[in-house]
Prior knowledge:
The chain is an alpha/beta fold. Helices cover 49% and strands 11% of the residues. The protein has a single domain (3-144), classed as 5'-nuclease (Rossmann fold).
Amino acid sequence: MVYCIDTSALIDAWVRWYPKDVLPTLWDDRIEELLKAGEFVAPDEVLEELKQKEGDTLTDWALRHKKMFRVTDMDLQSVATEIVNHFPNLVDPDSSVTEADPFVVALARTINATVITGEKATGQLESHPHIPDVCRHYKSSVLIC
Length: 145
């Protein structure tokens, strides 16, 4: 099984639920195994969101594991654009930076991965969808942590 992780899930895991200093074997053993097998991925946009918190130990970890971040090629961009066109409220139209959410869903759809996110479903596909709502619409697997 391949997991496509969202920024919120990485932050929640690193800071709140499974800090590396408390559960080093999770990060140093299990996640490393998934990374080596290519089963723990994220789009480049997740790394860009993490970089906004420069100096953060999670960002440092992510930069050491750049191989997990998939480059946004034309196919992925096309799927992400389709998602945003269908669910324009998934992103903030006033944001000056590219948001990762549609790329997380697009990558998961493209490679048939399970999305891991810290977001909760809103049940409001039209007005305020979150990643779990969009995943359910596309019948994509999603784990909420």
